[in-house]
Fold this protein.
Amino acid sequence: MITIVYEDAAILVCHKEAGIPTQSARIGQADMVSLAANYRKNKGEDTYVGLVQRLDQPVEGLLVLGKTKEATAFLSEQVRDRKVVKEYFAVVTGSAEEEAELTDYLIRDGRNNVSRVGQKGEKDAKLSNLVYHKVAETNGKSLVRVRLGTGRHHQIRVQLSHAGLPIVGDRKYGTSTGEYLPLGLCSCYAEFLHPVTKERMTFSVIPKGKAFEDFTF
C-alpha cells in the first residue's frame, strides 16, 4: 500500500511508512519505487518512477518521486544545489536546548553502513550541518524539529547522538536498552520548485509512529 500526499503529471509525493525501504535490490521485498510503479500501472499509466532523494528504511515521512525523466532531473538538480528544504521531527532522549546548531565532520563506513563523527581534515570527513529547535518535552524526551543544511549519510541520527540526544528507537546510534520503539524520526516538511510550473511547492505530514505518541501535533 502506498499513501499519496500529492500527485500530478510530473511528481508523486508520498508518505513513506517506517520499515519500508526507498529502493531495494532484494527480490520480493516491497519498496517505495516498486510500490509507486505498481500504483501507476494500476492507473493505466507509464510505470516510470524517478528517485530524487532517499529516506532510510526505518525513517517515515515525505518522499518525492518524479513521474518523468525530465521532472526527476530538475528535482535532482535542486537537491544537488541545496535548494530543496527538508525538515524532520525527531524524538530524542533527554532535554534538548531550545535552539541549537550542530556542525560536525562525518565519515561514512559504507561496508558497515554506518557513519561517525571525525575531525576536520581527517580522510573522507565531510562537513555536516543542521539546526534544530525544541517543540515540546515530556517524560524525559524532547520533540525537536530539524532543518538540514547538508544531506549526509545518517546525518541527523549521528549528529544528535553525538550531541547527547540519541533518537528514541535508534539501536544503531542510540541505545539497545528499554522498550523497543520504531525510530522516532519523520521527514515532516519539504519545499521545492515544481519541475514544470516552477511554482514553489510545500508539503507537510504528521508522524504516525509510536515514538511520537506522547506529543500533540
